[in-house]
Structures are given as structure tokens and as C-alpha cells.
Amino acid sequence: MKLPALTALRYFDVAAQTQSFVRAAEQLNVTHGAVSRQVRLLEEQLGIPLFERRNRAIFLTGAGRELLATTQSIFDQLQGTLHRLQQGSRDDVLVLSCEPTLAMKWLIPRLPAFHAEHPDLQVQLVAAGGPVDLVRGGIDLALRRDDFRWDDGVHTLKVCDETVGPVCRPALASASLDGQHLLHSASRPSAWSTWLRLSGQSDAGSLRADYQHFYLCIQAATAGLGIAMASRLMVEDELASGQLQAPYGFIADGSAYHLLCTQPIMAVDKCRHFAEWVIAQAADRTTSPR
Fold first, then answer.
1. Does the residue 84 lie in any domain?
2. Would the pTM count as exceeding 0.70?
3. Angle 214-222/232-241 helices, nearest 10 degrees?
4. Ramachandran bin of 210, using left for φ above 0, alpha for ψ from -120 to 50, beta for the remaining angles
5. Residue 193 domain-assigned?
6. Does residue 82 fall inside a structural domain?
7. Does the pLDDT value for residue 36 go beyond 90?
């Protein structure tokens, strides 16, 4: 399939975020008709509707929401890369790519501590998961779980093992999963089956609820909608505050988090500073951000 024109994808992205062709046209400095035409051409090329149009209002379809998740990430990364290219390579800027859920739930709340230790080093965070092109993306370091194979020429440093376990509101914690709503994530589809196999527990009699992303499962568990399978790193703060409990504890699932770099990590000062800090943070799992 031929890829859609970048203009059509950009117009769709802005329209989807603003939920309005009129507001999208204002942001893009074009006419309302231009936005509408580009979106219609995109829908015709894909053969599926991306918006429902009702009484002059537009609403994303399921396909539209899925496409927006991709276009938003792509254009955010493109903007960040162009900005970095304009600035040029700087020793006082660390461009870090991190998995979105890990960035939101664990890394960002702790970054003030890093800035306090290294006030002259600015972290530019790019939220992205999976394989990463460090060179083309202008990325100094990437923080990833080893659920994919990276190139042999990439330098790596292990940060910590991944540990996972069921988490829920205190009112839902019990000795059995029978009758409980288990929250499954499309981004980690085997999370529950892996834990059940390793723990020897059974999900017989449980109910299933599906979410698109890992962080949505965690948010749903925090809201009391069921029990989520979570990375301990990503729920440390909720556990410390008492919002969530881990009735079965956590176990290692065989995966781990690593830093990826095009150069030996400890040979580059800004990369070494971050590596030493993030490894220490991951090792200290008994306190909230400090």
C-alpha cells in the first residue's frame, strides 16, 4: 500500500487533537475546506472512516483513535528532532528516549532529583517504545525493556530486572482471582499469562477487560475497575501512597530494562551521569520520588 501524503496525515492529526476542522484550520493557517478535503482524501485512500460527522461536530472512530496514537507520536518526535538539529549537538543536553508508561509513571516524577544533582545537564525526553533508530532520531540514550532484538552495534547497560504482579485498590485485594475483573493490555498481551505461569496461580472464574495501553490498565486499577498486571517500577508511587496494593507481591518475569547508546555509555560524561543515577533510582524501590 502506498503511504498517504504527509500533508493529509498532518491535517488529520491536528483535526483529531482539536476535534474540530475549524480549529485545525486556524492552527494550520489554512481554510476549513482544505482540512476537510485532506481528511476525506485520507479516508478514501484507507477505505475506512476516521471521523463520525454529526451536526457539524466530528468524533473519532475506533480507527481514527488508533491512527491518532501513531501520528501524534510521529509528529512529536519529528518536531523534537528538527529542534535538536537546529540546536546542534550539545554536551549539556541529553536526548533520552523512554517507553511512554515508564516515562509517565516512574521517570518523570523522579527527574527533579536528577536535575538537582546535575543542574547543568538538560534532559530532553522523547516518549517512544520498541525498536529505536538512535542515529536518525538524534537520541543519546534509550531506556527500553528487552522485549525486542536491537542491533549488534548498539552499546547497552542493564538498569534493572523487570518484576511484575497484580495490583488493585485495597477494597479489591483478596486471596483469589475468582470473580475479579482482570485488566489486560494490548501493548503487553502476555503479561497475565506469564505471571500466572510463573506464580502458579489460576484465573479460573475471573472476568476479562481489555485496554489498548499498559498505562490505561494501571489507571483503571487505580480507579477501582479491576486488577491490573503491572510493572513494580510503574506503580511504586501508588503503592507507597496506599492507592494500590499488590496482594500477591511481585516476581521477575525474565525481562529487564537496559540503556541503549551508539557509544560506550560510561565513556560519555552526560550518558554516564544519567546511567549512574537511573540505576541507583531503580535499585531503591522503597521510597517515593525524592
1. no
2. no
3. 20
4. beta
5. yes
6. no
7. yes
